[in-house]
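User: Structure please.
Assistant: Input sequence and predicted structure:
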Amino acid sequence: MIKINLAKTFFVLVALAAVTADASSPRSTLEQVDLLILGGTVVTMDAKRRVVENGGVAIRGGSIVAVGTRAEIAKTYRAKQKIDASGKAVVPGLINTHTHIPMVLFRGIADDLDLQEWLTKFIFPAEAKNVDEAFVRAGTRLGLAEMIRGGTTTYCDMYYFEDAIADETSKAGVRGVLGQTVIDFPVPDAKTYAEGLELTERFIKKWQGHPLIVPAIAPHAPYTVSESNLTDARALSDRLGAPLLIHLAEADTETKAIQEKYDGLRPIEFMEKIAFFNDRTIAAHVVHANEKELDLLKRHNVGIAHNPQSNMKLAAGVAPVPMMLAKDMNVGLGTDGPASNNDLNMWEEMDTAAKLHKVFWKDPKVVSAEQAFEMATIRGARALHMADRIGSLESGKLADIVVVDLDGLHQTPMYNLYSHLVYATKASDVRTVVIHGRIVMRDRRLLTLNENAIKNEAIAYRNKIVESLKN
Protein backbone atom coordinates (compact mmCIF):
# COMPACT_ATOMS: atom_id res chain seq x y z
CA MET A 1 0.00 0.00 0.00
CA ILE A 2 1.43 3.41 -1.09
CA LYS A 3 1.35 6.14 1.52
CA ILE A 4 0.83 9.68 0.27
CA ASN A 5 2.22 12.64 2.19
CA LEU A 6 -0.66 15.07 1.58
CA ALA A 7 1.15 18.10 2.98
CA LYS A 8 4.26 17.54 0.82
CA THR A 9 2.13 16.97 -2.27
CA PHE A 10 0.22 20.17 -1.64
CA PHE A 11 3.39 22.28 -1.46
CA VAL A 12 4.80 20.69 -4.65
CA LEU A 13 1.57 21.49 -6.52
CA VAL A 14 1.62 25.06 -5.25
CA ALA A 15 5.23 25.48 -6.39
CA LEU A 16 4.46 24.06 -9.83
CA ALA A 17 1.50 26.36 -10.16
CA ALA A 18 3.65 29.36 -9.26
CA VAL A 19 6.28 28.44 -11.85
CA THR A 20 3.59 27.94 -14.51
CA ALA A 21 1.95 31.25 -13.64
CA ASP A 22 5.30 33.07 -13.81
CA ALA A 23 6.10 31.51 -17.19
CA SER A 24 2.83 32.76 -18.61
CA SER A 25 2.93 36.18 -16.94
CA PRO A 26 3.10 39.25 -19.19
CA ARG A 27 6.60 40.20 -17.97
CA SER A 28 8.18 36.83 -18.75
CA THR A 29 6.95 36.98 -22.34
CA LEU A 30 8.46 40.41 -22.97
CA GLU A 31 11.41 40.49 -25.35
CA GLN A 32 14.69 41.53 -23.71
CA VAL A 33 16.49 44.56 -25.17
CA ASP A 34 19.34 46.71 -23.92
CA LEU A 35 17.66 50.11 -23.71
CA LEU A 36 14.18 51.58 -23.88
CA ILE A 37 13.39 55.22 -24.57
CA LEU A 38 9.80 55.79 -23.47
CA GLY A 39 7.50 58.80 -23.76
CA GLY A 40 8.05 61.99 -25.68
CA THR A 41 7.38 62.85 -29.30
CA VAL A 42 9.36 60.56 -31.60
CA VAL A 43 10.36 62.33 -34.83
CA THR A 44 11.28 59.37 -37.03
CA MET A 45 12.34 61.11 -40.30
CA ASP A 46 11.40 57.85 -42.05
CA ALA A 47 9.99 57.80 -45.60
CA LYS A 48 6.52 58.68 -44.28
CA ARG A 49 7.91 61.28 -41.85
CA ARG A 50 6.01 59.65 -39.00
CA VAL A 51 5.79 61.63 -35.77
CA VAL A 52 4.72 59.42 -32.87
CA GLU A 53 3.19 61.19 -29.87
CA ASN A 54 3.98 59.51 -26.53
CA GLY A 55 6.26 57.16 -28.39
CA GLY A 56 8.91 54.62 -27.61
CA VAL A 57 12.11 53.17 -29.07
CA ALA A 58 13.60 49.75 -28.28
CA ILE A 59 17.36 49.26 -28.75
CA ARG A 60 19.53 46.16 -28.73
CA GLY A 61 23.14 45.57 -29.77
CA GLY A 62 23.65 49.07 -31.12
CA SER A 63 20.59 48.99 -33.39
CA ILE A 64 16.97 50.03 -33.23
CA VAL A 65 14.67 47.04 -32.74
CA ALA A 66 11.34 48.86 -32.87
CA VAL A 67 9.71 52.29 -32.93
CA GLY A 68 6.09 52.80 -31.92
CA THR A 69 3.82 54.22 -29.29
CA ARG A 70 4.89 53.97 -25.68
CA ALA A 71 2.13 51.44 -25.04
CA GLU A 72 3.21 49.25 -27.98
CA ILE A 73 6.87 49.26 -26.96
CA ALA A 74 6.19 48.77 -23.23
CA LYS A 75 3.94 45.75 -23.79
CA THR A 76 6.47 44.04 -26.06
CA TYR A 77 9.94 44.82 -24.66
CA ARG A 78 11.76 45.05 -21.36
CA ALA A 79 15.21 46.42 -20.52
CA LYS A 80 17.38 47.09 -17.49
CA GLN A 81 18.16 50.58 -18.82
CA LYS A 82 15.41 53.09 -19.54
CA ILE A 83 15.27 56.73 -20.52
CA ASP A 84 12.11 58.65 -19.66
CA ALA A 85 11.58 61.13 -22.51
CA SER A 86 8.16 62.33 -21.39
CA GLY A 87 7.48 65.87 -22.56
CA LYS A 88 10.57 65.85 -24.78
CA ALA A 89 11.38 65.23 -28.44
CA VAL A 90 13.17 62.04 -29.49
CA VAL A 91 14.99 62.72 -32.76
CA PRO A 92 17.64 61.11 -34.96
CA GLY A 93 21.18 62.08 -34.05
CA LEU A 94 22.30 65.15 -35.98
CA ILE A 95 24.83 64.69 -38.80
CA ASN A 96 27.57 67.27 -39.35
CA THR A 97 28.67 66.64 -42.95
CA HIS A 98 31.84 68.79 -42.94
CA THR A 99 34.34 69.64 -40.20
CA HIS A 100 38.02 70.08 -39.38
CA ILE A 101 37.54 69.14 -35.76
CA PRO A 102 40.98 69.86 -34.21
CA MET A 103 40.68 73.45 -35.44
CA VAL A 104 38.57 74.23 -32.37
CA LEU A 105 41.95 75.17 -30.90
CA PHE A 106 42.20 77.94 -33.53
CA ARG A 107 38.71 79.25 -32.74
CA GLY A 108 38.80 83.04 -33.22
CA ILE A 109 42.47 83.19 -34.20
CA ALA A 110 41.73 85.14 -37.41
CA ASP A 111 38.33 86.51 -38.36
CA ASP A 112 36.71 88.87 -40.86
CA LEU A 113 38.98 87.93 -43.78
CA ASP A 114 38.39 86.48 -47.24
CA LEU A 115 39.07 82.78 -47.74
CA GLN A 116 42.48 82.94 -49.43
CA GLU A 117 43.91 85.55 -47.04
CA TRP A 118 42.51 83.65 -44.06
CA LEU A 119 44.11 80.41 -45.28
CA THR A 120 47.47 81.58 -46.58
CA LYS A 121 48.35 84.32 -44.08
CA PHE A 122 46.94 82.86 -40.88
CA ILE A 123 45.69 79.28 -40.86
CA PHE A 124 48.42 77.54 -42.85
CA PRO A 125 51.23 79.30 -40.86
CA ALA A 126 49.50 78.60 -37.53
CA GLU A 127 49.14 74.95 -38.46
CA ALA A 128 52.78 74.69 -39.52
CA LYS A 129 53.91 75.98 -36.11
CA ASN A 130 51.48 74.14 -33.85
CA VAL A 131 49.86 71.06 -35.34
CA ASP A 132 51.22 67.71 -34.21
CA GLU A 133 49.54 64.55 -32.95
CA ALA A 134 49.12 65.85 -29.39
CA PHE A 135 47.50 69.05 -30.70
CA VAL A 136 45.12 67.02 -32.86
CA ARG A 137 44.12 64.77 -29.99
CA ALA A 138 43.45 67.70 -27.65
CA GLY A 139 41.42 69.54 -30.29
CA THR A 140 39.47 66.42 -31.18
CA ARG A 141 38.46 65.80 -27.58
CA LEU A 142 37.28 69.41 -27.26
CA GLY A 143 35.31 69.22 -30.51
CA LEU A 144 33.77 65.87 -29.62
CA ALA A 145 32.56 67.18 -26.27
CA GLU A 146 31.01 70.21 -27.97
CA MET A 147 29.31 68.06 -30.61
CA ILE A 148 27.89 65.56 -28.13
CA ARG A 149 26.49 68.40 -26.03
CA GLY A 150 24.73 69.69 -29.15
CA GLY A 151 23.30 66.34 -30.23
CA THR A 152 25.64 65.61 -33.13
CA THR A 153 26.20 61.86 -33.34
CA THR A 154 27.99 61.58 -36.71
CA TYR A 155 30.49 63.95 -38.30
CA CYS A 156 32.54 64.02 -41.48
CA ASP A 157 36.08 65.30 -41.00
CA MET A 158 39.09 66.34 -43.08
CA TYR A 159 42.39 66.98 -41.31
CA TYR A 160 45.88 65.75 -40.50
CA PHE A 161 46.81 62.90 -38.13
CA GLU A 162 43.38 61.47 -38.86
CA ASP A 163 44.38 58.18 -37.23
CA ALA A 164 44.60 60.04 -33.90
CA ILE A 165 41.22 61.66 -34.61
CA ALA A 166 39.75 58.21 -35.26
CA ASP A 167 41.22 56.89 -32.02
CA GLU A 168 39.79 59.75 -29.91
CA THR A 169 36.43 59.54 -31.72
CA SER A 170 36.05 55.82 -31.13
CA LYS A 171 36.98 56.19 -27.45
CA ALA A 172 34.36 58.90 -27.04
CA GLY A 173 31.76 56.68 -28.70
CA VAL A 174 31.02 59.06 -31.58
CA ARG A 175 30.47 58.08 -35.21
CA GLY A 176 32.77 59.59 -37.84
CA VAL A 177 33.50 59.57 -41.56
CA LEU A 178 37.11 60.61 -41.21
CA GLY A 179 39.24 61.70 -44.15
CA GLN A 180 43.02 61.82 -44.02
CA THR A 181 43.90 65.04 -45.85
CA VAL A 182 46.41 64.90 -48.72
CA ILE A 183 47.77 68.07 -50.29
CA ASP A 184 50.60 69.01 -52.63
CA PHE A 185 52.76 70.98 -50.19
CA PRO A 186 54.36 69.83 -46.90
CA VAL A 187 51.90 69.52 -44.00
CA PRO A 188 52.32 68.49 -40.36
CA ASP A 189 52.02 64.73 -40.96
CA ALA A 190 53.47 64.36 -44.48
CA LYS A 191 56.25 66.16 -46.32
CA THR A 192 55.17 65.05 -49.81
CA TYR A 193 51.93 64.04 -51.52
CA ALA A 194 53.25 60.51 -52.04
CA GLU A 195 54.02 60.20 -48.33
CA GLY A 196 50.52 61.46 -47.54
CA LEU A 197 48.95 58.91 -49.87
CA GLU A 198 50.90 56.06 -48.23
CA LEU A 199 49.81 57.31 -44.81
CA THR A 200 46.21 57.44 -46.01
CA GLU A 201 46.27 53.87 -47.29
CA ARG A 202 47.54 52.57 -43.94
CA PHE A 203 44.91 54.63 -42.12
CA ILE A 204 42.05 53.31 -44.26
CA LYS A 205 43.13 49.67 -43.95
CA LYS A 206 43.50 50.00 -40.17
CA TRP A 207 39.99 51.37 -39.55
CA GLN A 208 37.86 49.71 -42.20
CA GLY A 209 35.12 47.59 -40.63
CA HIS A 210 35.07 49.52 -37.34
CA PRO A 211 31.52 49.94 -35.95
CA LEU A 212 31.92 53.73 -35.52
CA ILE A 213 34.70 54.84 -37.88
CA VAL A 214 34.46 55.06 -41.67
CA PRO A 215 37.98 55.93 -42.94
CA ALA A 216 38.29 58.06 -46.07
CA ILE A 217 40.76 59.85 -48.32
CA ALA A 218 40.52 63.63 -48.51
CA PRO A 219 42.42 65.48 -51.25
CA HIS A 220 42.13 69.06 -50.02
CA ALA A 221 40.83 70.91 -53.11
CA PRO A 222 41.41 71.20 -56.86
CA TYR A 223 43.48 74.36 -56.30
CA THR A 224 45.85 72.68 -53.79
CA VAL A 225 46.15 69.23 -55.41
CA SER A 226 47.44 68.65 -58.94
CA GLU A 227 45.48 66.83 -61.62
CA SER A 228 47.61 63.70 -61.43
CA ASN A 229 47.41 63.63 -57.63
CA LEU A 230 43.63 64.04 -57.76
CA THR A 231 43.34 61.04 -60.05
CA ASP A 232 45.65 59.06 -57.73
CA ALA A 233 43.30 59.87 -54.84
CA ARG A 234 40.32 58.69 -56.87
CA ALA A 235 42.17 55.46 -57.72
CA LEU A 236 42.91 54.79 -54.04
CA SER A 237 39.24 55.41 -53.19
CA ASP A 238 38.21 52.90 -55.85
CA ARG A 239 40.77 50.28 -54.84
CA LEU A 240 39.89 50.38 -51.13
CA GLY A 241 36.18 51.24 -51.46
CA ALA A 242 36.69 54.29 -49.26
CA PRO A 243 34.81 57.61 -49.33
CA LEU A 244 36.44 60.45 -51.28
CA LEU A 245 36.18 63.88 -49.57
CA ILE A 246 37.08 67.25 -51.11
CA HIS A 247 36.42 71.00 -50.91
CA LEU A 248 34.79 72.03 -54.17
CA ALA A 249 33.50 75.22 -55.81
CA GLU A 250 33.82 77.12 -52.54
CA ALA A 251 34.78 80.65 -53.65
CA ASP A 252 35.18 82.93 -56.67
CA THR A 253 38.95 82.86 -56.21
CA GLU A 254 38.90 79.08 -56.65
CA THR A 255 36.84 79.34 -59.82
CA LYS A 256 39.20 81.91 -61.32
CA ALA A 257 42.30 79.90 -60.41
CA ILE A 258 40.94 76.71 -61.97
CA GLN A 259 39.76 78.51 -65.11
CA GLU A 260 43.18 80.08 -65.59
CA LYS A 261 44.95 76.78 -65.11
CA TYR A 262 42.63 74.45 -67.02
CA ASP A 263 41.52 76.19 -70.23
CA GLY A 264 38.51 78.03 -68.84
CA LEU A 265 36.92 75.04 -67.10
CA ARG A 266 35.05 75.73 -63.87
CA PRO A 267 35.98 73.54 -60.84
CA ILE A 268 33.12 71.03 -61.19
CA GLU A 269 33.60 70.83 -64.97
CA PHE A 270 37.32 70.21 -64.47
CA MET A 271 36.69 67.44 -61.93
CA GLU A 272 34.21 65.83 -64.30
CA LYS A 273 36.74 65.97 -67.15
CA ILE A 274 39.41 64.11 -65.14
CA ALA A 275 36.85 61.50 -63.99
CA PHE A 276 37.33 62.35 -60.33
CA PHE A 277 33.79 61.69 -59.11
CA ASN A 278 32.61 58.29 -57.91
CA ASP A 279 29.51 57.31 -55.96
CA ARG A 280 31.42 57.65 -52.66
CA THR A 281 32.38 61.30 -53.21
CA ILE A 282 31.45 63.95 -50.63
CA ALA A 283 31.98 67.55 -51.80
CA ALA A 284 32.11 70.33 -49.24
CA HIS A 285 30.56 73.76 -49.98
CA VAL A 286 29.53 73.65 -53.70
CA VAL A 287 28.72 77.35 -53.57
CA HIS A 288 29.61 78.37 -57.13
CA ALA A 289 27.67 75.83 -59.18
CA ASN A 290 25.19 76.33 -61.99
CA GLU A 291 22.35 73.99 -62.95
CA LYS A 292 24.44 72.06 -65.47
CA GLU A 293 27.11 71.45 -62.84
CA LEU A 294 24.55 70.32 -60.27
CA ASP A 295 23.23 67.82 -62.81
CA LEU A 296 26.77 66.44 -63.16
CA LEU A 297 27.03 65.97 -59.40
CA LYS A 298 23.61 64.34 -59.22
CA ARG A 299 24.46 61.94 -62.02
CA HIS A 300 27.46 60.74 -60.02
CA ASN A 301 25.45 60.61 -56.76
CA VAL A 302 27.87 63.05 -55.12
CA GLY A 303 27.06 64.02 -51.54
CA ILE A 304 27.15 67.75 -50.79
CA ALA A 305 27.97 69.43 -47.48
CA HIS A 306 26.28 72.85 -47.24
CA ASN A 307 28.02 75.13 -44.73
CA PRO A 308 25.87 78.27 -44.51
CA GLN A 309 27.51 80.01 -41.54
CA SER A 310 31.08 79.43 -42.68
CA ASN A 311 30.25 80.53 -46.22
CA MET A 312 28.63 83.69 -44.85
CA LYS A 313 31.51 84.49 -42.50
CA LEU A 314 34.13 84.15 -45.26
CA ALA A 315 31.84 85.88 -47.79
CA ALA A 316 32.27 82.86 -50.06
CA GLY A 317 28.76 83.19 -51.45
CA VAL A 318 25.41 81.42 -51.15
CA ALA A 319 25.09 77.87 -52.43
CA PRO A 320 22.10 77.10 -54.72
CA VAL A 321 20.49 74.88 -52.10
CA PRO A 322 16.85 75.41 -53.22
CA MET A 323 17.90 74.12 -56.64
CA MET A 324 19.65 71.15 -55.02
CA LEU A 325 16.52 70.30 -53.03
CA ALA A 326 14.31 70.65 -56.12
CA LYS A 327 16.56 68.10 -57.82
CA ASP A 328 16.40 65.85 -54.70
CA MET A 329 20.18 65.88 -54.36
CA ASN A 330 22.12 64.42 -51.45
CA VAL A 331 22.76 67.64 -49.54
CA GLY A 332 23.42 67.83 -45.82
CA LEU A 333 24.48 70.54 -43.39
CA GLY A 334 27.95 71.12 -42.00
CA THR A 335 29.59 73.58 -39.66
CA ASP A 336 33.00 73.58 -41.39
CA GLY A 337 35.96 73.97 -39.05
CA PRO A 338 35.48 75.98 -35.86
CA ALA A 339 38.15 78.45 -37.02
CA SER A 340 35.79 79.69 -39.73
CA ASN A 341 32.41 79.42 -38.02
CA ASN A 342 33.30 79.51 -34.94
CA ASP A 343 31.46 76.57 -33.39
CA LEU A 344 30.13 73.08 -34.10
CA ASN A 345 26.48 73.87 -33.45
CA MET A 346 24.14 72.11 -35.87
CA TRP A 347 21.02 73.79 -34.46
CA GLU A 348 22.43 77.13 -35.58
CA GLU A 349 23.22 75.71 -39.02
CA MET A 350 19.61 74.54 -39.43
CA ASP A 351 18.23 77.91 -38.42
CA THR A 352 20.70 79.77 -40.64
CA ALA A 353 20.16 77.52 -43.66
CA ALA A 354 16.43 78.15 -43.64
CA LYS A 355 16.69 81.90 -43.14
CA LEU A 356 19.66 82.61 -45.39
CA HIS A 357 18.00 81.17 -48.47
CA LYS A 358 14.72 82.93 -47.79
CA VAL A 359 16.39 86.33 -47.79
CA PHE A 360 18.87 85.57 -50.59
CA TRP A 361 16.27 84.16 -52.99
CA LYS A 362 13.63 86.62 -51.78
CA ASP A 363 11.18 83.81 -51.19
CA PRO A 364 9.98 82.88 -47.66
CA LYS A 365 8.83 79.48 -48.89
CA VAL A 366 12.26 78.10 -49.88
CA VAL A 367 14.06 75.77 -47.46
CA SER A 368 11.26 75.13 -44.99
CA ALA A 369 11.89 74.19 -41.37
CA GLU A 370 11.18 70.56 -42.19
CA GLN A 371 13.66 70.62 -45.08
CA ALA A 372 16.33 72.19 -42.84
CA PHE A 373 15.80 69.48 -40.22
CA GLU A 374 15.90 66.89 -42.99
CA MET A 375 19.31 68.17 -44.13
CA ALA A 376 20.61 67.74 -40.58
CA THR A 377 19.33 64.16 -40.37
CA ILE A 378 18.22 61.83 -43.16
CA ARG A 379 19.37 63.94 -46.13
CA GLY A 380 22.68 64.47 -44.35
CA ALA A 381 22.94 60.69 -44.07
CA ARG A 382 22.37 60.52 -47.82
CA ALA A 383 25.17 63.06 -48.34
CA LEU A 384 27.54 60.73 -46.46
CA HIS A 385 26.22 57.71 -48.39
CA MET A 386 25.02 56.21 -45.09
CA ALA A 387 21.22 56.58 -45.30
CA ASP A 388 20.81 52.81 -45.01
CA ARG A 389 22.34 52.98 -41.51
CA ILE A 390 21.70 56.38 -39.93
CA GLY A 391 19.60 59.54 -40.26
CA SER A 392 16.18 58.24 -39.18
CA LEU A 393 14.60 56.25 -36.36
CA GLU A 394 13.57 52.96 -37.94
CA SER A 395 13.83 49.28 -37.10
CA GLY A 396 17.18 47.91 -38.27
CA LYS A 397 19.01 51.23 -38.31
CA LEU A 398 21.83 52.11 -35.93
CA ALA A 399 20.68 53.55 -32.62
CA ASP A 400 21.91 57.16 -32.86
CA ILE A 401 19.26 59.08 -30.94
CA VAL A 402 18.94 62.45 -29.23
CA VAL A 403 16.45 63.47 -26.54
CA VAL A 404 15.67 67.19 -26.61
CA ASP A 405 13.91 69.36 -24.03
CA LEU A 406 10.85 71.22 -25.32
CA ASP A 407 9.87 73.20 -22.23
CA GLY A 408 12.27 76.16 -22.21
CA LEU A 409 10.96 79.71 -22.05
CA HIS A 410 12.21 80.21 -25.62
CA GLN A 411 10.18 77.14 -26.66
CA THR A 412 6.89 78.06 -25.05
CA PRO A 413 4.26 77.66 -26.42
CA MET A 414 4.63 75.13 -29.24
CA TYR A 415 2.42 74.89 -32.34
CA ASN A 416 4.51 73.18 -35.04
CA LEU A 417 7.22 70.68 -34.07
CA TYR A 418 9.57 71.23 -37.05
CA SER A 419 9.33 74.99 -36.64
CA HIS A 420 10.08 74.54 -32.95
CA LEU A 421 13.13 72.36 -33.57
CA VAL A 422 14.65 74.58 -36.26
CA TYR A 423 13.77 78.14 -35.23
CA ALA A 424 13.59 77.92 -31.43
CA THR A 425 15.63 74.98 -30.13
CA LYS A 426 19.24 75.49 -28.99
CA ALA A 427 22.15 73.11 -28.47
CA SER A 428 21.69 73.58 -24.72
CA ASP A 429 18.24 71.98 -25.00
CA VAL A 430 19.81 68.61 -25.82
CA ARG A 431 19.28 66.44 -22.76
CA THR A 432 20.52 62.93 -23.57
CA VAL A 433 22.53 61.43 -26.45
CA VAL A 434 22.71 57.78 -27.52
CA ILE A 435 25.21 56.62 -30.17
CA HIS A 436 25.29 53.02 -31.42
CA GLY A 437 23.01 52.13 -28.51
CA ARG A 438 25.39 53.58 -25.90
CA ILE A 439 24.43 56.53 -23.72
CA VAL A 440 27.26 59.07 -24.14
CA MET A 441 25.47 61.95 -22.39
CA ARG A 442 22.67 61.63 -19.88
CA ASP A 443 20.81 64.58 -18.40
CA ARG A 444 23.52 66.94 -19.75
CA ARG A 445 26.37 64.98 -18.13
CA LEU A 446 29.07 63.73 -20.49
CA LEU A 447 29.81 60.06 -19.80
CA THR A 448 32.72 59.35 -22.16
CA LEU A 449 34.76 62.57 -21.89
CA ASN A 450 36.20 64.62 -19.01
CA GLU A 451 34.92 68.14 -19.61
CA ASN A 452 37.11 69.95 -17.05
CA ALA A 453 40.31 68.26 -18.22
CA ILE A 454 39.45 69.07 -21.83
CA LYS A 455 38.91 72.77 -21.06
CA ASN A 456 42.17 73.05 -19.09
CA GLU A 457 44.13 71.44 -21.92
CA ALA A 458 42.56 73.75 -24.50
CA ILE A 459 43.46 76.85 -22.44
CA ALA A 460 47.08 75.65 -22.23
CA TYR A 461 47.18 75.28 -26.02
CA ARG A 462 45.75 78.77 -26.45
CA ASN A 463 48.73 80.23 -24.62
CA LYS A 464 51.18 78.16 -26.68
CA ILE A 465 49.54 79.22 -29.97
CA VAL A 466 49.65 82.91 -29.03
CA GLU A 467 53.38 82.65 -28.33
CA SER A 468 54.06 80.80 -31.59
CA LEU A 469 52.46 83.56 -33.64
CA LYS A 470 54.76 86.22 -32.11
CA ASN A 471 57.78 84.66 -33.79
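The chain has a mean pLDDT of 93.
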